[in-house]
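[Q] Does anyone have a clean structure-token version of this?
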Amino acid sequence: MADAERQAQGEINDATRVVSRMWMEPGMAALLPAAKGVLVVPSYGRGAYFLGGQGGHGVLLLRKSGTTWSQPAFYSLGGAGFGLQAADGERGPIALILMSDESVGKFRDNTRTWQLAGDTGLTVVGFSHGQATASDNSRADIVMWSAAKGLHGRVSAAATYITPSVTLDDAYYHQLVTNRQILTGAVASRRTANLREALAGASDARYR
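[A] Here you go.
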């Protein structure tokens, strides 16, 4: 297995664990079934790779129907960090839960780097632990969940750059493929089953 493919599989395995953790959050059982997509970033925070800003690498899946989810596409995030502040070395998982068709379209249809900022037209709110319900967030385009230690501050779309990871996409699916093609069903891999089952709420999802 090549390095890029190994990295991609590692991100999928880590994302599976994060999703299982998310289901344990009070209120998440009401929110996730209403989500149209979820971008899971297993390790998010400040680091040298992001040139003094904050960021991380993750995978995006879109709901196809019911409890059926798309194959994961790979992304990197970097920039101001949703208004959150992190000390050097502080990292942890976050997830962007896409609640609207508009947010899905932004992530699915942009095949190059784009900026999630205040003028993007998407409303970003923070997940309220123990209080969030689908109705509470019905007006939000994106709900951001975080279990990252050391992150604090009011959540906002604060100039975060979203980049589809072409290198990981191509390496993992063994062909030249865009994030849009992945998310709309042009390719498939059995190795993603655990992540998709975990997102669907399957209690018997196991890690590979």
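[Q] Thanks! Anything notable?
[A] The first helix runs from residue 3 to 23.
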